[in-house]
Amino acid sequence: MHAVGVIDWDRRLFDALIPLPHGTSYNAYLIRGDEKTALIETVDITKEEDLVRNLIALGVDRIDYIVANHAEQDHTGSLPMMLELFPNATVLASEKCKELLTLLLQVPAERIQAVKDGEQVALGGKTLQFFMTPWVHWPDTMVTYLPEEKILFSCDYLGSHLATSDLFATDEVTVYETAKRYYAEIMMPFRSSARSHLARVRSLQVDFIAPSHGPVYNRPAFILDAYEDWTSDAVKNEVVIPYVSMHGSTQKMVDYLCGALIRRGIRVKPYNLPYADVGEIARALVDAATVVIGTPTVLFGAHPAAVYAAYLVSALHPKTRCASIIGSYGWGGTTVNQLSEILGKMHLDIVDPVFIKGYPGEADLTALDQLADAILAKHREYGIVASQ
Ligand SMILES: Cc1cc2nc3c(=O)[nH]c(=O)nc-3n(C[C@H](O)[C@H](O)[C@H](O)COP(=O)(O)O)c2cc1C
Ligand SMILES: [Fe+2]
Ligand SMILES: [Fe+2]
């Protein structure tokens, strides 16, 4: 197997949504059998030339198969060019991926061979085997197994947005954090699918997991155990607090609540929304038991940054079990109802909000102590804090 993908050190935004503080990579792999040559994935269209150069460097003059595990353009952007350069190449993809490739990239259907779960394609001394893994994170996704080398090509599944010159995930501390963030942003909304495919992967003999973003795992248990934990129902004794404050009232409430929670032995992760990195918030949501949104009332509703945060929390669908709202208003509005409605879709335990008029006084701070007590009681109920 040869790595022929490209590192994108400078990419800073993905899907026009996700900040990439560590860049990313679009991994592609070349497999030469005795009779046939296969390319696993292509790269983002912006890096097409680099892929071609990597193939030239290896003296590749023929490609028989191009495996598209997933139709998203960061992996298939260069597919039309590859099909032009290698007119005899056939794309191997799931039925759903075939449909999406014809729609998104106008790949002619006759150039795509749909493969089924468990199907094998022989390269001569090497075999590609395909396993359908839908919904990590699109309906089309599959993984490709190379039994002779015990490599699993997992595409987005188990990947990380990390530009690094390390081929292997040797720096496990860094890779753990970036893979967790990647899981949070991309896979968490499909937690049950991400979990269900783990058993399949573990049932194969795998020495290497080669995703399409970030380094290759030469110790597969590292990432499989991490996914086992992240996708489990277990929550941690933590409260994530995305908040915004224009003139300091909500800020004071957040600061006070943080102290009150810390005094009760609960870990807090406050995020001041206008300056926060949504990827960090997503990662914190992977295992926090509770989320509290802090916002003032602006133009009769929640601050737009808080609406965005509530919407994001709801869309990412973390395993969070409990939520509340805190903040301040001057004369009136529908802030609490508006945010409750967005968060309501998650079927969480809602602890009574503390929504006060103006700057918090003594009685308001007492209400925040009561909120901290109520959150602690919930965490006891969830079995993550010992009962007294
Ligand atoms: C631009 C702006 C719009 C506001 N709109 C409302 C409103 O529609 N209803 C309301 O009750 N208060 C409104 N307020 C008052 C704030 O909600 C109030 O001052 C609150 O205490 C601010 O909290 P903060 O210091 O955390 O920003 C508005 C304040 C600003 C600056
Ligand atoms: Fe994707
Ligand atoms: Fe991707």
Summarize the structure.
The chain is an alpha/beta fold and 388 residues long.
Spell out which ligands are present. Answer: flavin mononucleotide, fe (ii) ion
Question: Low-confidence parts, pLDDT < 50 over ≥5 residues?
Answer: none
Q: What is the 3D shape?
A: elongated
| Amino- and carboxy-terminal Cα gap | 57 Å
Give me the CATH superfamily of the largest domain: Ribonuclease Z/Hydroxyacylglutathione hydrolase-like
Q: Measured on Cα atoms, how large is the radius of gyration?
A: 24 Å
Biggest sheet statistics? 7 strands, mixed
Q: Indicate the structural class.
A: alpha/beta
Under the CATH scheme, the architecture of the largest domain is 4-Layer Sandwich
Classify the beta-strand content into a percent band: 15-25%
Number of strands: 22
The level of helicity is 25-40%
Which CATH C-level class of the largest domain is it?
Alpha Beta
Rounded mean pLDDT is 97
How many helix segments? 12
If you had to describe this structure to a student in words, what would you say it looks like?
The chain is of the alpha/beta class and 388 residues long. It has 2 domains: 2-230, 4-Layer Sandwich (Metallo-beta-lactamase, Chain A), CATH 3.60.15; 236-378, Flavodoxin domain (Rossmann fold), CATH 3.40.50.360. It has helices spanning 48-57, 73-76, 79-85, 95-104, 172-187, 191-203, 220-230, 249-263, 278-285, 304-316, 335-344, 362-381; strands at 2-3, 6-8, 13-14, 18-19, 24-26, 29-32, 37-40, 65-67, 90-93, 112-114, 120-122, 127-132, 142-146, 151-155, 208-211, 236-243, 267-272, 288-298, 301-302, 322-329, 349-350, 354-357. The strands form 5 sheets. Strands 16, 17, 18, 19, 20, 21 and 22 form a 7-stranded mixed β-sheet that branches. A 6-stranded mixed β-sheet has the order 1-6-7-8-9-10. β9 (90-93), α4 (95-104) and β10 form a beta-alpha-beta unit. α5 (172-187) packs across α9, α8 (249-263) packs across α12 (362-381) and α10 (304-316) packs parallel to α11. The longest helix is centred in the C-terminal third of the chain and has 20 residues, at 362-381. It starts with a strand and ends in a 7-residue tail after the last helix. The model has no long low-confidence stretch (mean pLDDT 97). The structure holds flavin mononucleotide (FMN) and fe (ii) ion (2 copies). Residues 245-251, 296-300, 328-333, 358 line the site of flavin mononucleotide.
